[in-house]
Amino acid sequence: MLVKPDVLQSLRRSAPEFAGLVEGQLVLRGDDGLPYLNYLQATYTLNKETAWLVEYMSGSLNVLRQDSLKAYDYITTDYIAEHRRAIEKAVETKPGKKADPILLAKYHSLAVYHNKVVDRLVRAIRNANETFGPDTNLDQLKDFRLAMFAALGRAGQSDKVMGFVRPKFAGLAGGIEALESEKIPLKRVFAQLY
């Protein structure tokens, strides 16, 4: 989904403090230089942070039930897998029938985007785990933005926030192989193009 350049220019003028985050995370540039919405990564990271924030804020109150986070877990884990399956299903052809080359090319571009997002998420999780040290603050995380937690840290809850977030990233690191398995094998799925 393309983003009109004048929308980005307006954002740079009206909210320069968010322009870098938007253009580096929510909006990316394709090989053609056109800006597009990075919906897959944005959905993953925003819902992961929201789930953690709900857990963090309700942790001491014992209000949170484990099943209340299932919706966020679906969005962050299964959403990537469903995105992959939807692409693969869309390009399936019935025996003896040839696929539409224009349709294949469009879905191939989507599959390439999907794989780039998986690579970016894996890199962001690894970088976050490598970045964490005793003096780390959340503003130092470059690839995995946790704006709400960073704000809590700046509001005097830094040690508590870091104590909560550090094991969360360690848990994400444990799921890197599963995340990497959601990459689309381009040469197999799009064999007609190769």
Descriptive key words:
67% helix, mainly alpha, 2 domains, two-stranded antiparallel ribbon, 194 residues
Could you explain how this protein is built, in words?
The chain folds into 2 domains: 1-37; 80-193, no CATH class. A hairpin with a 5-residue loop joins strand 1 (27-29) and strand 2. The longest helix has 31 residues, at 101-131. The chain has helices at 5-14, 16-26, 39-58, 70-90, 101-131, 147-174, 176-180, 186-189, and strands spanning 27-29, 35-37. The relative contact order is 0.12. The two termini are 25 Å apart. It contains 8 helices and 2 strands; from the N terminus they run H-H-E-E-H-H-H-H-H-H. Helix 1 (5-14) runs antiparallel to helix 2. A two-stranded antiparallel ribbon has the order 1-2.
Produce a short descriptive summary.
This protein is 67% helix and 3% strand. With 194 residues, the protein is mostly helical.
Topology:
Elements: H1 5-14, H2 16-26, E1 27-29, E2 35-37, H3 39-58, H4 70-90, H5 101-131, H6 147-174, H7 176-180, H8 186-189
Antiparallel strand pairs: 1-2
Helix pairs in contact: 1-2, 3-4, 3-6, 4-5, 5-6
Low-confidence runs of at least 5 consecutive residues = 60-64
For the termini, the CA-CA separation is 25 Å
Physical arrangement of strands within the biggest beta sheet: 1-2
Helical coverage, percent range: 55-70%
Q: Total strand count, please? A: 2
**For the CA atoms, what is the radius of gyration?**
19 Å
Question: How many individual helices?
Answer: 8
Strand portion, in percent? under 5%
Mean pLDDT: 78
